[in-house]
């Protein structure tokens, strides 16, 4: 499995944090003046930013996590829904996150068409960039990381080896055992969990939901790889009861960038 370098971690973490403010000046972070496209959700709020530079190979897709009451309520839709009819993927995923991918995306650009879903809008934006020889990295926080896994898998199916890497922060599980077995990008996926972030243990249904990729647990001044969930939960239980949500903030992930080496 490939490794995640410190500079890569820091870059993706900062971009995830900056996805939340309404205004993001991409030129400050090395992207072209015209190197940003925004994808809205059904409410007309920013959900995804697509960022690129014409002289660099990598396009970065940054997906926001839950940022409204309605988004958080979707986490309660814990039954699974098939991706086969629309995405052509042979597994089912969390129904709430399925909705995030399939909701209508309100137009944000003159080229956007009414009625397109979020995943269709994203594919439409990425296709011409892929045709220019660029590869795609996907990063997301919370539910944004979860749906990023599915979109990355979908894109990899249509354009083999187009995904450079997937990096998620504070991500809940999205699929079952079939998803875990069929997901194609496990060796290019990094799931970062910070201390006692409660969201990384959700949904709280044993053996119904499974994670994929390499887990990097930032805990007590160290970085642990692929720590079993039961062990991570046991070590974290006392602190979890005291401060369950403070470790879910992107600012905490930013502060822990020093876990990664400079290579």
CATH superfamily: Alpha/Beta hydrolase fold, catalytic domain
Looking at the overall shape, the CATH architecture is: 3-Layer(aba) Sandwich
Radius of gyration over all CA atoms, rounded: 17 Å
- The CATH first-level class comes to Alpha Beta
Q: Trace the largest sheet across and list its strands.
A: 1-2-3-6-7-8-9-10
Total DSSP helices: 9
* Proportion in β-strands: 15-25%
Question: What does the overall shape look like?
Answer: globular
Strand element count = 10
Question: How would you describe the overall organization of this protein?
Answer:
It is a single chain. The longest helix has 16 residues, at 143-158. The protein has a single domain (6-259), classed as Alpha/Beta hydrolase fold, catalytic domain (Rossmann fold). With 263 residues, it is α/β, with parallel strands linked by helices. The model has no long low-confidence stretch (mean pLDDT 90). It has helices spanning 6-18, 69-74, 84-87, 95-102, 118-131, 143-158, 177-182, 229-242, 250-255, and strands at 36-40, 46-51, 58-63, 80-82, 92-94, 135-141, 163-169, 189-194, 214-219, 222-225. It is built from 9 helices and 10 strands.
Q: What is shown here, in short?
A:
This protein is an alpha/beta fold and 263 residues long. The chain has helices at residues 6-18, 69-74, 84-87, 95-102, 118-131, 143-158, 177-182, 229-242, 250-255, and strands at residues 36-40, 46-51, 58-63, 80-82, 92-94, 135-141, 163-169, 189-194, 214-219, 222-225.
